[in-house]
Amino acid sequence: MSRLVALVAALLGAVLIAALAARPPGPLAVNADAVLFSADRAFVDIREMARAPHPTGSPEQARVRAYLVGRLRAVGLEARTETVPFSRKGRERLERWGGPAALGRDPENVVAVLPGRDHTGPAVLLMAHYDTVWGSPGAADDGAGVAAMLEIARALKAGPPPVRDVVLLFTDAEELNGDGALGFFERDPLAARIGVAVNLEARGAGGRAVMFETGPENGAMARLYARAVRQPTAQSLAAFIYKVMPNFTDFTLARQRGIGGVNFAFMGRAGLYHSPLATADAVEPGSVQHLGGQALDIVRALAMAPALPAKAPDAAFGDVLGLFLLAYPAWAGWIVLATAGALLALALVRLRAADGPTWREVGRGGLLALALVLHAGLALYAFDALSIAPTRNYYDRLAALPRLELQAALIGLAALVLAFSRWTIRARWAPLPAAVLLVAIAVHGKAFGFAIPVAVAAGGLAFLAVKKPVGTWAIWMGTALLVLLLALAAQVAAPTTTPLLAWPLLLTAAVAALAATLDPMLRKPPVLAVLAVAGAVSAAFVLGLAHLAFLGVGSELPMTMAAFLLLVSLAMAPLLRDAVPPRPAAVIALVLLLGAGGIALSVRLAPLSPTVAVYSR
């Protein structure tokens, strides 16, 4: 097996594994076992509720509310409605959407209780909002969540009685200011009994459902989620980022009151977020299956538990390609990093014994890796600027996310090819690419001041890195040590974010120690095969997280993808170096960048997407 064959196999394997891991499960049919969640059963309710837009106060919402009450009674639950007051912000937003005529009715929640054996203990709250934005039928946001709640209630009723009560809260006015949930927590007597909350949301109409937010001190909750939920998709990194961002859902109001729990949403087909085209036919059935299946698993586990998860220090956790979830105390990240560091040290000792790279050469390899990240960030920023139309619309950018994600992938691959081929350039010309990217950013009017220090650092690092040749082991170990330093910093500052860095690093360190012992020249077919398999698995894990991150922030912060590129380079470094000769590498990179430029122009020049939210036009 040649290095090029191993590289191609690793890249294709990574893409294939990541694509398979990103697919939601298939929907269960209407005749599925009664205790299971069936998306096909839930879609009956989605289609009925999403016949037309139903914002707060509208006649169509009154129809949906009556339908919900009837469906809950059909399941065997007593349902009631409760009127709650508008907040000032809620009234102002509704008036902007629908005019004064829309303000004639206050928000009305729908509440039901699935009784448990103990009516005095803390209850489980399951919630989703049944209002839509103006102009959208809301089949996904949040028709999918509401329908999933009805199906979960039916599945729970079909099984043994729960230990504790399960409160079903269908909130109104979430799209305005969360007024329905706010009114429940401030006015409803049931609110005092809530011990844990599970919220169902949507930001798009497809893809896997992600558990993206937890309540405070989530250690015990994360471990319960790991035990109870099949086909999990969750990362403590996402929970940390969401906590520090100014986002809002109904779950925010529970979390602010110290209530533990989890928040789910799917984010694929992002162009359908708040869209007039967000009909039932546009929603991916597998996404509803994944949303409801995870929610049923965790709600059932909570409802049947002798005691709810106590507050415990936040955990570091993450799913492994959607197969299972690892969760451990955040302090245990030090053990993971210490193990990775020891394995890297073993690899370096073995290499020095075989006349491998010096520390100075390894340092230059780390500089090259850092220069790669900074150049990629600049390129992502520059091409993103090229793709933005003068009449920018947030929802139009969401519709363009698939093309923008492909654009980012082409830029990242071009950067990898150039950085890891032995493409030679005189040191004095090394800062030129960063300077060209800086000019491109300035021409398109992006935040030029932000890009200047990045370009200066990128050019300086490139100057230092190319003064002397850097070998395969030097760049691989240099990249690994750079990731180790970043992971140590993350472990100090935000320990729940480290799985993103620590897990690929640990796998790389183990493979590097093995390769340095058995084949320091990296030529034996069995060792190349191990490198290809490990590289494919590690890169697939990173690509899966990069995809979710792009769905979350890619339309606003595409340069963040450079961090994921560093981890892909860590996985592929021993195969990339020398796999492609310099001239073909330069041609390949040029073709990739031209393709990225073509995508950017197609996004910039395209007419406004028909999926754009009505109120944003």
Please summarize what this structure is.
Helices cover 56% and strands 10% of the residues. By secondary structure, it is an alpha/beta fold.
Overall description:
With 617 residues, this protein is an alpha/beta fold. The protein folds into two domains: 3-19 and 347-606, no CATH class; 32-322, Zn peptidases (Aminopeptidase), CATH 3.40.630. 56% of the residues lie in helices and 10% in strands. The chain has 21 helices and nine strands. The protein has helices at residues 3-22, 39-49, 59-75, 88-98, 143-158, 179-187, 219-228, 236-244, 250-256, 285-304, 333-353, 359-387, 394-399, 401-420, 432-443, 448-465, 472-493, 499-518, 525-553, 561-576, 582-605; strands at residues 79-83, 108-114, 123-129, 166-171, 194-202, 206-214, 260-268, 315-320, 324-329. The strands form two sheets. A seven-stranded mixed sheet has the order 1-2-4-3-5-7-6, sandwiched between helices. The protein has a two-stranded antiparallel ribbon with strand order 8-9. Helix 11 (333-353) packs parallel to helix 18, helix 12 packs across helix 17 (472-493) and helix 14 packs antiparallel against helix 21.
Low-confidence stretches: none
CATH fold label of the largest domain: Aminopeptidase
Compressed to H and E, one letter per element, the order equals HHHEHEEHEHEEHHHEHEEHHHHHHHHHHH
How many E-type strands? 9
CATH superfamily of the largest domain: Zn peptidases
Which percent range describes the beta-strand content?
5-15%
Q: What is the approximate shape?
A: globular
Distance between termini?
56 Å
Mean pLDDT: 93
Structural class: alpha/beta
Q: Please work out how many helical segments DSSP would assign.
A: 21
Q: How much helix is in the residues?
A: 55-70%
* Main pleated-sheet profile: 7 strands, mixed
CATH architecture field of the largest domain = 3-Layer(aba) Sandwich
Can you tell me the number of structural domains?
2
Radius of gyration: 26 Å
CATH class of the largest domain: Alpha Beta
For the largest beta sheet, what order do the strands appear in spatially?
A: 1-2-4-3-5-7-6
